[in-house]
Every structure is written in C-alpha cells, then in structure tokens.
Amino acid sequence: MAETVTLFRPVGLNELKLIEDSGWKAFPPRLPEQPIFYPVTNEAYAAQIARDWNTKHGSKQGFVTRFDVEADYVSRFERKIVGGRQHEELWVPAEELEEFNTRIVGPITVTQRFVPAES
Q1: Which of left, alpha, beta for 83 (phi over 0: left; psi -120 to 50: alpha)?
Q2: Which of 98, 99, 112, 116 is geometrically suited to a Cys-Cys bond with 55, CB 3.0 to 4.6 A?
Q3: Which has the closest alpha carbon to 12: 71, 70, 61?
Q4: Considering only CA atoms, which of 77, 96, 67 is closest in space to residue 4?
Q5: How far is 33 from 39, CA to CA, in rounded Å?
Q6: Mind listing the pLDDT tens digit for each residue in 81-90?
Q7: Is the dihedral of CA 73, 45, 48, 80 positive or negative?
Q8: Is 63 helix (H, G, I), strand (E, B) or coil?
Q9: What is the DSSP letter of 44?
C-alpha cells in the first residue's frame, strides 16, 4: 500500500453536504473565484479556521475534515506558511482538484464541528 499523508480541511455546511453527496470520497470543484484548493497540514489550524471563520459566514457552522492522500502525489504541491509556523497549507491549483480527489485514500471524515457562541 502506498504511503499516505494526513491532511485537514475546514469547511462550511454547504461544502460538507457536497462531500457527503460524493460518498465522503471527494471535495467539490472550486468556484471560478477560487483558483486554489487549500488543505492544511494540522488539525489545530483547521479547527482555528472552522471556529473563527466558518462560524461567522454562510451557514454559521464550521467543520474540520480529515483525510489521507497518497504521499508521493501530494509532495508535488507547494507548502506555504501563512502566519505562524503552525499555519501550513498545501496550495493545489483548482484544475488539479479532480486528480487530487482520486488520490484520497479512504473516506473523508469529520473530526470537529463548530457553531457560533450564543450571545
């Protein structure tokens, strides 16, 4: 079996429903104004985005997804630090997402859910 890398992706409710519709096997295509797909390399960073961004926009719910991808395949994508060293992302061009999805090993799972705090 090929070696895998575990990645995380914070998503809102709409994106989560599209992942569920795929049978928990794929992320939906990017929108025209979204040229990059950004999975992150650690769960704490994904949780920060889901909690601090997703709960303030759209459905007001944030989810952390976890998934494994073939290590040889993901090594071709640039890793970017976008803040502190824990803020590491892979930058996957939107046109590569369909291929990226075929390299996911096993199901995409939800590890955390966030809703806005009651006022």
Answers
A1: left
A2: 116
A3: 61
A4: 67
A5: 17
A6: 877 777 899 9
A7: negative
A8: strand
A9: H
**Are 105 and 4 spatial neighbours (Cβ–Cβ below 8 Å)?**
yes
Specify burial of residue 39 (Cβ count, 10 A radius: 0-12, 13-18, 19+): buried
Confidence (pLDDT) at 63: 97
Report d(CA 76, CA 24) in Å as an integer: 24
Please give the domain boundaries of the chain with CATH numbers for all domains. 4-114 (3.20.170)
pLDDT at 28 over 90: yes
> If DSSP codes are grouped into helix, strand and coil, which group holds residue 79?
strand
The pLDDT, as a whole number, for residue 105 is: 98
How many residues appear in the chain?
119
* 30-61 pLDDT, tens digit each: 999 999 999 999 999 999 999 998 888 888 99
Query: Rounded distance, CA 89 to CA 69, Å?
Result: 14
CA-atom Rg of the chain in angstroms: 14
